[in-house]
Design brief:
Shape: globular
Bound molecules: manganese (II) ion
Largest sheet: 7 strands, antiparallel
Structural class: mainly beta
Number of strands: 26
Distance between the termini: 44 Å
Radius of gyration: 20 Å
Strand content: over 45%
């Protein structure tokens, strides 16, 4: 069974461009290889935006050496990059962008969301690439909500498997009391994203007061981010916009869910994002939007970008 290594509390909020008020819950500069292969998790919103004429966001900027993963929960984000990719990430959608050897992109509220206004909630992850893949050609996987398979567990918990596989174990249900009911069915649900290293990325909606045993992977760094409500793991409570970093030992975690404290319904849900991945045990050297293995590679990244080689 996986136990808690440390609780990560909500850091102060800052703005990315003028579009995204974020809490950088995970950051390699603080957590290092303890969160590997993940480098960063920015929780944006939930925040309300009034209708406006001009889309807010963040203009053209480069990335090299890793992948950016944008998950939209409310609102819409428009994306465009110099590899010719672009599109609108809608509610429930995920954009998995491999910056690799270099990409220049921009991220804005969509035109439609800008005009109508409303709630914006998203998470952006940075996922590291192993040294051998840092200079891979840029790539883009745009995934719509309907392309993400969902599993409903016996207790009503719902899992959306974005990347990797999740093994559901369903107890056979029979009304025939003369038969043993120990025949469990195991079924693997696999997400649509392809990744460079072994990663599971799963959204989960957990009914309040339910307890769920999640099947994760021995040896992975696993992180549970709480988006809504709160959860308890081994008698420790993790609140909204906080995370639990789990120890790599063990392959399951037992989570009890609690409704948001401001809800009027005690049947409300908790919502979490599960990040789990095989650690990349290599040096991390980062500078702004570049994450490489050595200072020399960072210098090269800056030179290449300034010379227009992205
Ligand atoms: Mn970016």
């Amino acid at each position: 069974m996986k136990t808690i290594k440390r609780i990560i509390n909500t850091p102060p909020q800052h703005w990315v461009g003028d579009g995204f008020p974020v809490n950088s819950l995970l950051f390699y500069g603080e957590h290092g290889n303890a969160i590997s292969p993940f480098l960063l998790a920015d929780l944006a919103g939930p925040a309300h935006f009034d209708p406006a004429a001009t889309p807010r966001g963040v203009g053209q900027h480069p990335h090299r050496g890793f992948e950016t993963v944008t998950l939209v929960y409310q609102g819409e984000v428009a994306h465009k990059d110099n590899a010719g990719n672009g599109g609108i990430i809608k509610k429930g959608g995920v954009q998995w962008m491999t910056a690799g050897k270099g990409i220049i992109h921009e991220e804005f509220h969509s035109q439609d969301f800008t005009q109508k206004g409303g709630e914006l909630e998203m998470i952006q992850l940075w996922v590291n690439l192993p040294a051998k893949d840092k200079m891979t050609p840029p790539a883009y996987q745009g995934i719509n909500n309907e392309d993400i398979p969902t599993a409903t567990l016996n207790n009503g918990a719902q899992l959306r498997v974005i990347a990797g596989s999740y093994n559901t174990i369903t107890k056979a249900i029979t009304n025939d009391t003369t038969k043993a009911t120990t025949n469990n069915t195991t079924k693997a649900i696999t997400g649509p994203v392809s990744t460079f290293t072994n990663i599971q990325l799963i959204d989960a909606v957990l009914p309040a007061n339910s307890t769920t045993t999640l099947n994760l992977t021995e040896g992975h760094n696993s992180i549970i981010i709480v988006r809504r409500g709160s959860i308890t793991i081994n008698n420790t409570t993790i609140n909204t916009k906080c995370a639990a970093l789990l120890n790599p030992q063990g392959d399951t975690v037992i989570i009890t869910a609690h409704a948001p404290s401001d809800t009027t319904s005690n049947a409300d849900n908790a919502e979490i994002l599960i990040l789990s991945g095989e650690p990349i045990n290599e040096p991390i050297e980062g500078y702004g939007p570049f994450v490489m293995n050595t200072q020399a590679e960072i210098k090269t990244a800056i030179t290449d970008y300034n010379a227009g080689r992205f």
